[in-house]
Amino acid sequence: MPIAKISPSLLSGDFGILAAECKRMVSHGADWLHMDVMDGHFVPNITIGAPVISCLTKHLNAFLDCHMMVSHPEKWVDDFAKAGASLYCFHIEATQDASALIDQIHAAGMKAGVAVKPKTPISTVMDLGHKMDMCLVMTVEPGFGGQRFMAECMPKVKELRAKYPDLDIEVDGGIAPENIDAAAKAGANVIVAGTSIFKADDISGTIESFRTIVNTEQDLLAKK
Questions:
Q1: CA distances from 140 to 53, 59, 161, 216 (A)
Q2: Vertex 109, ends 108 and 113: CA angle to 5°?
Q3: Where along the chain is the active site annotated (predicted)?
Q4: Separation of alpha carbons 36 and 170, rounded Å
Q5: Could you report the per-residue pLDDT of 64-94, keeping only the tens digit for each?
Q6: Annotation says 36 is catalytic
Q7: What structural domains and CATH numbers belong to the chain?
Q8: pTM for the whole structure
């Protein structure tokens, strides 16, 4: 079974000192760093792009988990690969040929992730499990931080984990100490959390608690 990977969402950090925020999260034990990239079309907001990623990678040695909330994800693959992105996660809703896009991402030297919105059936990605490196199940509507965790998305995680026991499955949106158990029991092993990590009194303790809960549940799932 895959191990826990805790990926603090930099959307909750201070963009004025983004490199320092990245280093701070890594120093507290973060496994990955989650970068939300929005183009103002797929979702209404606009955030960082490839030039910012490029600047960060000059000062960091970290796994950059780039969540591409963009309308034409195939357009930006090469730019993000050159910038140093580690994983390029596009939305299934934003492409007509997910399989070809995964091939394009792999050819560029990055891992490929596929994301699904809360209202998108998990059946849209079930045939991609043998190609994608990660599936992101959104637990809020993409585009805004600080939303309520949508527990009704957990059956998607369970279905995906049952079919692909070795796949990295990520959850993103509203993850906090009070609901991490639900995500872990469903089978998620990659945990994106913004406010609950950045605003925690004990950041290291919160990250380690999330990791322990996820790894415990993964062990239990492996024994079933």
A1: 24, 31, 20, 25
A2: 90
A3: 36 (proton acceptor), 172 (proton donor)
A4: 14
A5: 999 999 989 999 999 999 999 999 999 999 9
A6: yes
A7: 5-222 (3.20.20.70)
A8: 0.93
